[in-house]
Amino acid sequence: MEKKKSEISIQENINNEDAPTWALPDGAIARLGRGCEPNMAFSPDGRFIGIGTLIGIWLYDQETLSPIALWETEEGVVVSIAFSYDGKWIAASNTNNILKVLNLENGDCLAKVKTDDFITELAISQDNCYIAGAYARSSAVEVWETETCKPIATLYADTDSDGFYRPILFSPDSKLIVSTYRTEETHDEDAIAVWNVENGQQVASLTNHTSWVSSLSFSPCGQFLASGGEDGTVYVWDVNTWKPIKEYTSFGHVYRIIPSYTPDGILRTVIITYDDTNPTTITVCNLESGEELYRDHIWGSTVEFSSAYDWGNRVTFSNGSELAYECRHEFINVWTSNHPYKRQFTHSPISFPTSGVFSDDGKTLAIEHHQECAILWDIATKRSRPAIREESAGKNQFLYKCSNDKLYAASIKDDTVTLWDTDGDCKPLFKGTDREYWGAIPAMDLTGSFFAYTGEEGKIIVWDVQNKTQLFEFTHPIEIEDNDDEDDGDRVGELKFNHDGSLLASETRYGNIILWDMKTGEKIKTLTRDSLSSGKYFPDKEEDNTKSECDWTRFETHLNVPITEDIGQVIAWEFSTCEKYLAAAACWKEASNQLAIYLWEVETGRTLTTFWGHPIFIQALTFSSDNKLLASIGKDGSILLWDLSPFIDN
Questions:
Q1: Residues with Cβ < 8 Å from 634, sequence gap 6 or more?
Q2: Residue 556 scores a pLDDT above 80
Q3: SS3 letters for 340-356?
């Protein structure tokens, strides 16, 4: 189905409050969130900030920090962007192995090429003649002409090793390219490769760093190269000899160093420090003089790791004078020489959303995020706020909607679990300690009476929510084996209350299940996973809780919808609140860049409509209470709201 193309031009005076409605797929009325895993870049002329995300490319005005364009939503999954020095175009690569050159005035594609692998970092030569890309799964670097995307050369390092987030850079005269690769000796240390662009030969290999090298910067004169990363050291290399002429190490215990030269040749660096209990500190200073120019403290995940499978607060530092970084909730902070203080604009939460639920009145959509903060979206204004307003609260947060429409949130920080009331001032109700790090997600019953979490050695702590007191402490026996690793051994891996909160089920990783009576605090019975093959789980709540059991084998097939090849594997589904409709999200259909969402009528099995939206996995679906809205929650960092009014029986 044809998608709506963004008609936004960067010259127009746009109302950025309308950004949730830009470049929407057919049938969607809003997009909440602007995409996760941002790759940020400043335009050399200081006009724009570009952000490549999993839903496309956002363009922001650097002076006002307002969004002015959204492009490439048809394919999404943009992993790297770079601006040309003449301010005419922007290069972008995605995980479909496509490199594109876009017109910076309107987002039109000027040239594109299919690449051998997906590119994690891009660089533009200062004469605007070449684009260079560092591949994700090899040490190769490829060079293309900008106007045609015609390949010019493929450059290889001394070893053919992989390495995500490899920095890549042209020298000021466009004659050299530098990037990084992992050494054969340890595979933990980055070396810096230097190539001659004209003949493709490697002219140097710089091996002083002992860990990931995340940043490279040439001096404006082209005589020096600065490098920095996770080992906390900045080296300055003489381009004529490729020997280090300066070494900066007196930064204390740091997490990452990002050096960058200013246009007038001053070497500055961003210093990032982090530990598990305190906020991340981000500092900008002049390396030679030690003068501190900027400092900020942010709560949330760490800065991004060198591993391809870790993520965190993304940080970009360019021209020694332009800094952008993610912070908690859904903001990006910006510091520049023109505005030497913290400025902030809304973007998206750091990690992807995993589940959601509408309030009964349909005015609020509550969203959980993977290992991050929970968010409450106002449907009318398309604005959001944290479910937990305290910035220092634990980053792992969970939401619980009760049968009376009351919404609670829990946060986990170290071994402490805190339960919060999301209404009003969002104050903590109580705190529980001694939680097991690898334990089950805390549970709350639908009535909002009980809250349970796991402690060490099989302990289960149950709180009375209304009275804010600890009610019970159970011990679920776990199996101990001599070869158990801390994160692989047996433990209580799941907690679940029944429909009215009279029973709590606890299950270990090895399949041992115990049912607990919430009135007496006593164990009712022990089950095994094998005994649940018939679907038996909670006993009937009447009498002694042991005689009559709910047997899922009594349920008969009511609706059988064939999952044909054109639909693909279903990855998420949800019944409407009236149970008349079933929505399901499927994997990619062949030759499609978007995932399909199907809406079926339960009584007849008839397909009412098909929506096409997210470029990567849909985590969950949820209906509003009046069934007129369907929210699809994507791993791309966005939630699409779909209007069901034309398809349902009002």
A1: 352, 353, 595, 613, 614, 616, 617, 618, 619, 640
A2: no
A3: CCCEEEECCCCCCEEEE
- Which residue has tokens 């009535």? 447
- Of the given ranges (269-273, 355-359, 479-483, 624-628), which has the lowest mean pLDDT? 479-483
At a CB cut-off of 8 Å and minimum separation 6, what does 538 contact?
Answer: 498, 503, 505, 515, 549, 550
The model's pLDDT over 604-648, given as tens digits with 9 standing for 90+, comes to: 888 999 999 899 899 999 999 999 999 999 999 999 999 999 998
- Are the C-beta atoms of residues 257 and 228 closer than 8 Å to each other? yes
CA distance 73 to 55: 6
Other C-beta atoms closer than 10 Å to the C-beta of 270 total 24
What's the per-residue H, E or C state across 311-340? CCECEEEECCCEEEEEECCCEEEEEECCCC
The answer to whether the CB of 6 falls within 8 A of the CB of 71 is yes
Measured CA to CA, the distance from residue 161 to residue 186 in angstroms comes to 11
∠328-93-132 over CA atoms, to 5°?
110
Torsion of CA 104, 110, 115, 119, to 10 degrees: 0
- pLDDT in the model for residue 11: 39
What span, in angstroms and rounded, lies between the C-alpha atoms of 281 and 261?
21
Helices (H), 382-468: none
- Dihedral angle at the C-alpha atoms of 592, 595, 599, 604, nearest 10 degrees? 60
Using DSSP, state whether 152 is helix, strand or coil. strand
Nearest to 335, CA basis, from 293, 306, 301: 293
Assign 3-class secondary structure to 444-471: ECCCCCEEEEEEHHHEEEEEECCCCEEE
Higher per-residue confidence, 531 vs 214:
214
For position 222, what pLDDT does the model report?
97
Determine phi and psi for 530, rounding to 5 degrees. Answer: -65, -35
Distance separating alpha carbons of residues 273 and 291, to the nearest angstrom: 17
What are the structure tokens assigned to 117, written together? 């692998």
The residue among 201 and 541 whose pLDDT is bigger is 201
Judged against a pLDDT cut of 50, whether residue 131 lies above it is answered with yes
**Cβ-proximal residues to 409 (8 Å cutoff; 6+ apart), any chain:** 374, 387, 388, 397, 398, 399, 400, 419, 420, 422, 426
List C-alpha distances in Å: 436 to 161, 300, 459, 487.
38, 20, 9, 11
Residues 291 and 271: beta-carbon distance below 8 Å: no
pTM for this one?
Answer: 0.88
Q: Which residues contact 543 (CB under 8 A, 6 or more apart)?
A: none
Residue 466, Cβ density class (10 Å: 0-12 exposed, 13-18 middle, ≥19 buried): exposed
Closest alpha carbon to 190 in 219, 215, 224: 215
CA distances to 144, 227, 248, 287, 317 from 237, rounded to whole Å, are 27, 8, 12, 15, 19
Pairing of strands 443-444, 428-432: unpaired
Question: What is the number of alpha carbons within 13 Å of residue 365 lying toward its C-beta?
Answer: 31
Task: Judge whether 178 and 169 are in contact, CB under 8 Å.
Answer: yes
The domain limits of the chain are: 561-650
